[in-house]
Structure formats: structure tokens, C-alpha cells
Specification:
Layout (H helix, E strand, L loop, with lengths): L1 E4 L3 E5 L4 H12 L4 E4 L4 E4 L10 H12 L6 H17 L5 E4 L5 H13 L6 E5 L10 H4 L11 H7 L6 E5 L15 E6 L4 H11 L3 E9 L11 H8 L1
Parallel strand pairs: 2-9, 5-6, 5-8, 6-7, 8-9
Antiparallel strand pairs: 1-2, 3-4
């Protein structure tokens, strides 16, 4: 499920196709501490489905799901929330970043982790084109086509995240907006949620060297079924 390296830390998570899975999840798995592992028939520990409890993760997820669309599955939300919280508790003054914001669901989750983990309120830098995938996306390599995921806007995301004063938006295509943070370093947590090879490679080139030692960079698309030639190759080439 994940690819992990320590110092700084890299985490790569899977991405399923959602429509059928979400229906199954909501009807059978929600609020279950243990779930059936298909196809092996084993019961496995799945705390990410327990969104009715009084925990930091569960409280955050209720707010995120009430806030609007969420583009990632609950297991990835659970891992991301805990990793962001751990990074924040270790480095409460260090900035954070998300590359690829889409509808703002994961940014809201990270912002809530900041509120729960530290009183310092470090900046969360949000990088997104708000115009869909760039012209550099090649379907044969990246699975995505130019303009995909264009059904969002900065205004809508800002409205969703208006409760958080510690956000800084960088609207435009990656890496064109990265010079705006040339003077920022020591990131404790970076979420890379951009799918395509050129953008993942640019995030690595610009932000990986600026991670604090023992910081965390999460690659949402590393082992997803459609992206063996894009996100995965970009990460593996760094190694």
C-alpha cells in the first residue's frame, strides 16, 4: 500500500476507482473497527472507517465530508492526518504545503490537523492551477489529459477554507508558482497530489531539498493503477 523512506520521509499511497467502492464502503464498512479483506477473507484493522468516534481524525473527517467533495479515500485521509499531526508535533513552527488542491478537501484535513496539533499556526502553502491539468500532461504517459479536473475554482476553495487564516494560495501551474516560495524552507509536511509526471518531478526538484530533516512528503499517486509511467517514475528517478 505504501512506499516509505526515512530522513526525510517519503510516503506513497494507492488510489482506487471510487464509485463502486464508495457505495460498498458506506453500506458495509463505515464505523467498523475491523473489515473484511477481499479476496482473502481475513478481518483487518481499519480505523479510518470509524468516523463516528470522538477522536481528532474522526472529528476532522466529519468536518471535511460536510465541507464538500473529497477526492481521496478514507484510508489515505487517515494516514495523511496522522502523518501531518506527527510532523506538526515534532516541528510546530515549520511551514507545510499541498501541491494539487482540487476542491480543497485534503487541504481542509491538513488545516484541521494543524489546529489539533499546535497553537503556532504555521503557514500552509496551497499550490493549484484552478484550470485543470496543464498542456504538459500526456494521456499515454500520465493518464490525464489537459484540462482534466478543471471543475473547481479558487473562490470555491477559499470559501470552503475560510475558517483557516494560515493559508497562502499560489494559483497557477506548477512549477511556475514555485519561485513565489524561494525564501521558504524547512517544510515539515508536503502533500503531492498532482498525478502527472512533469508536475510530480517539479515538486521533487523544488520542495524535496527544502524538507526539514525527518520531514514527510506524501505522494498520493505513486502506486495508483493508471499512473505507472507518471507519478511512480518521477519518484523512483529521485532515488
Amino acid at each position: 500500500m505504501s512506499n516509505v523512506a526515512i530522513g526525510p520521509v517519503k510516503i506513497a499511497l494507492r488510489k482506487p476507482r471510487y464509485s463502486m467502492w464508495n457505495r460498498l464502503e458506506r453500506s458495509l464498512y463505515r464505523e467498523c473497527e475491523y473489515s473484511l479483506h477481499i479476496p482473502y477473507g481475513q478481518r483487518v484493522f481499519t480505523p479510518w472507517f470509524e468516523t463516528d468516534r470522538d477522536t481528532s481524525y474522526a472529528n476532522a473527517m466529519r468536518k471535511v465530508e460536510a465541507g464538500g467533495r473529497l477526492g481521496v479515500s478514507l484510508n489515505r485521509c487517515f494516514v495523511m492526518h496522522h502523518l501531518a499531526g506527527s510532523a506538526l508535533r515534532a516541528f510546530p513552527d515549520s511551514p507545510l504545503a499541498e501541491c494539487g488542491v482540487y476542491t480543497g478537501g485534503t487541504a481542509q484535513l491538513i488545516a484541521l490537523a494543524i489546529q489539533d496539533s499546535t497553537e503556532r499556526m504555521p503557514l500552509l502553502h496551497l499550490f493549484h492551477s484552478f484550470e485543470g491539468m496543464p498542456q504538459s500532461s500526456v494521456p499515454e504517459r500520465d493518464y490525464q489529459s489537459p484540462g482534466d479536473y478543471g471543475d473547481t475554482s479558487q473562490e470555491a476553495v477559499e470559501e470552503r477554507l475560510k475558517a483557516f487564516p494560515n493559508l497562502k494560495y499560489h494559483a497557477g501551474f506548477i512549477p511556475d508558482t514555485f519561485p513565489e516560495v524561494n525564501d521558504v524552507s524547512g517544510y515539515s509536511f508536503v502533500h503531492v497530489y498532482v498525478d502527472i509526471f512533469p508536475s510530480v518531478a517539479a515538486c521533487l526538484q523544488w520542495l524535496w531539498p527544502k524538507l526539514i530533516s525527518r520531514g514527510v512528503m506524501v505522494f498520493d499517486d505513486y502506486e495508483f493503477f493508471p499512473y505507472p509511467k507518471s507519478a511512480r517514475v518521477a519518484v523512483d528517478e529521485l532515488e
